[in-house]
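Troubleshooting entry. Yesterday's outputs looked truncated, so today I'm pasting the complete records for two proteins to confirm everything comes through intact. If either block looks cut off, that's the bug. Protein one:
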Amino acid sequence: MATSPEESVEKDLPSLLSDIAALEQLADTWPEEQRNAAHARGEAIDALNAEAFKRLIKLLTEVPEFGPALKAAASDEIVYTVLRRHGILRASLFERVEAALETIRPMLASHGGDVELVKVELPKVVVRFLGACDGCPASALTFYSGVKTAIQTHVPEATEIQQVKGMGGGEGVQFVSPFASFQKDGWTETVNLKDLPDGTTQTLDIDDQSVLLSRFGDKITCFNNSCAHMGFRLDDGVIDEGLITCPFHGFQYSLESGECLTAPEVQLQPHGVRVTRNIVEVRLTR
């Protein structure tokens, strides 16, 4: 049966999560017996999917190059979210520290403040206070009794917690792509965040490798400047609303996710990206 245009449109992660939240809210109005039955069915489907993923990955672990392929696949935010939900991928160090900070943020917000994660490089974690907490006479007490305790409780291997001032600067964007925080070495500084406006793409050469660096709000992406079809350069292609079209054979890709709209079985090769003090850093995937 033919697929309608509406059915063929792929949704992004926020849209999919919004659909789930809407269904959960709808179920809240049901009688308790129906609500419990729906919840049990959802848990059973989750358990089935989790077991299938675990068995699939177990079977593929001996396949050459499976590790790098899984890492590349998990750079897609939807794949990463699903594998994390089922416990197949463990939370990155960056996520664990952010989860610790989330436990203290309501208290900081009640005083008009916040805390920002500046850097994670075990055993050191560096944070910066924002808003009313920045420069507040009681910030030292807040740091030691709140932030430092929260981080060490959730991430015990972080034994050196530091507070710095004035490191956010500029636009204050902090971004780490999935798995980027696992890698300490091999990062290359590229451009200042202010030189990469929202919605723009730049072509850069890093270690003799050409890459496409794009910005979507607070999210930065980096992909090989190479069409997954036949390997031709993409930088002469037309870019429109986050999509780039290969100038040679018309293959079209999303610069936000790397997926190919022309042939869904292929995608652009991603690279690790992080923003440190408003400098965009890239770690090439070999």
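Protein two, checking that the full record survives here as well:
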Amino acid sequence: MRNNRKYHDRIAAKYDQVYDSEYWRFYRDLSWRHLKPFLPTHRPATGADLGCGTGWFGVRLLRAGLHTVFLDPSGKMVEQARAAAAAESARGLTTTFVQCGLEDMDAVPDQSLDFATGQGDPLSFCESPESALRHLHRTIKKGGHLVLSVDNRCAGVRALLDEGAEQAALDLLRTGRTEWRAERAEERFGMKMFDAEELATLLERNGFAMRGCIGKTCLVQRRHEKLLATPEQRKHWFAAEESVHMKAHWFSAASHLQFIAQRK
């Protein structure tokens, strides 16, 4: 966790620049379109942006009319999220900022959240994903939805094989564990990659009912960014992605998986 914070503290000020490209905008918009139907319909309601980073999803929760908790283990990221949310504060909605990870959510009261999303794969960065899910079950109200994005083990194994790292690929295949390879060795940290069946079982075991999953992205990858050059092309590839990304046999093509689960 310490190296995770160190890395994200260092890149916080330039994080949005790193992910300011047509592909990543496409990826975020697909993620939001998938989770939006699961937002609570009643108001007032409270949502949470877990592992909020610079607050892109949390700001959208505010715009959807939710009081919003921004939570991240990196203090610098929390500062960026606070600045991003400042323009929305005049709408009468409350914003709460908490510096912690998913395994250390004691500051979030029991059953205080109607909805939560963890984008940027914060569950993958947990030493104990099961402990994190227990915290999430405690903080989300019965019937509330949880939307989690995680790193896809299939894609991780394939990437390591492409690099010629055969043993690392076999270790990842067997354990689901690998390393976030930051440029600076002192900022590298362990991470967990999931397959769809494994995470579905983990969610069910910790009090959540599965409501669906998509692969992100199944067709358009970063190397295909030129396909998104015009609004017409973008619309076309949105439709193409959404025609396949709920189908389990397409999941292995995606670098990430996004799960919808409901708190029992």
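Both blocks look complete. Sanity check on protein two: The mean pLDDT is 94.
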